[in-house]
Amino acid sequence: MKRWTLLSEDIKQYLIVTGNYWAFTLTDGALRMLIVLHFHALGYSPLSIAMLFVFYEIFGVVTNLVGGFLGAYLGLNRTMNTGLAIQILALLMLAVPAEWLSILYVMIAQALSGVAKDLNKMSAKSAIKTLIAQGQEGKLFKWVAILTGSKNTLKGAGFFLGGALLTLLSFKGAMLLMAGVLACIWSVSLYALKNDLGKAKNTPKFTDILSKSRSINLLSAARLFLFGARDVWFVVALPVFLSQVFNWDHWTVGGFLALWVMGYGVVQSLTPKLIHFNVPLSPAKETVKWASLLALVTLGIALSLYFSWEVKALLVAGLMLFGVVFAINSSLHSYLIVSMADADGVSLDVGFYYMANAMGRLLGTILSGWVFQLYGLAACLVISFTFICLAALISAKLPALKTNRITAK
User: Which of 2, 21, 28 is nearest to 156 (CA)?
Assistant: First the structure.
């Protein structure tokens, strides 16, 4: 407690935002794995499982667009705490008798969860911009990378937690446990977060939710295809493939994907050390370089599946390499959006960007179930490769940053 009192107010707020984001992410990852594994065990088809997440992604698109405006108008503390409250409600909705869990009912619960997740994420990412002095780009990149990387590490832990809870508890018991933990976090957050965090000095207009910046629009379009490329094979197709083809049980699927996402998060946190900032950063050059490498990795995995080349070994190894390169791509994008966003009402630009991110996830999720059910995992990977190439082509048009040099601090 003494160390806490010695910290600056900005550091305290950063730690509260990060802790809030961590707690939410852990339950969000667990919830996703619980739903995939539970409904697969009940005999639902891959396409049916994918449909359970459609409202989650659709409402994520809307939430990011409107949530950015609300964050600038009301303050990021309110949007973040609202996200936590809605997630608690979504979990309680799923803690009902099994016969109530129809596809439509679960989709509605997931719609609430999608709103909650993107309110929380938009608030956390935007808050960092308000806590870093303008011009300290190296420090900004470091803080964004730590937040993003740690979030995905915990999301991976959430995947493992979901598999474990499904084995040790009932589906209903898991929902009640997670809702109770989040309720405690929410109570602390209501008291601790500043009331004016991220609130715009000039009252924003609702029409400001659409970005007028060419660089933000280009980066958002690239982000759409980048995350569509990941989710088109990772969300539904991969867990079901591992279960059906490799005959892995819930513990193994949940544990493997958990380790993958945790490793992915660690690489995201380390990205500032992997990209050199002693020279002016070229967004176009860096994003195209890393996207091109990711495309090659994805194509290699697709070819190994199509020609049946040591499928188990090459899929696992390829997935590891994909995770490393995708993490660098994602971390670089996350830094660029925060850097390019307007400091006053930052959540407007960040919200628009993550709206595109959610659209990519929505597209990838639907295709993940549909394409896998009809054509298999290799076809999902071919689509992933195409999406990554589109992201690279769009990224090639990104303009230079307004800040000429990255100051590592």
Answer: 28
Q: Decide: helix, strand or coil at residue 279.
A: coil
- Tell me the torsion sign for CA atoms 89, 330, 124, 178: positive
Residues 6+ apart with CB under 8 A from 188: none
**N- to C-terminal Cα distance for the chain?**
27
pLDDT tens profile 301-349: 999 999 988 888 999 999 999 999 999 999 888 888 877 766 555 556 7
Tell me if 174 sits within 8 A of 290, measured CB to CB: no
Residue 235, C-beta contacts closer than 8 angstroms, at least 6 positions apart: 50, 53, 361, 364, 365, 368
Report the alpha-carbon distance of residue 56 to residue 39 in Å, rounded.
Answer: 16
Task: Report the sign of the C-alpha dihedral through residues 131, 137, 138, 143, in that order.
Answer: positive
Distances (CA, A) of 217 to 210, 213, 253, 327, 340: 9, 6, 37, 21, 11
* Tokens encoding 72: 């600038």
Best CA proximity match to 273, nearest among 148, 150, 395, 138: 138
Q: Tokens in use for 407?
A: 């100051």
Contact 367, 380 (CB under 8 A): yes
pTM of the model: 0.74
Q: How far apart are CA 201 and CA 207, in angstroms?
A: 17
Please determine, looking at this structure, whether the domain spanning 2-395 carries the CATH number 3.40.50.2000. no
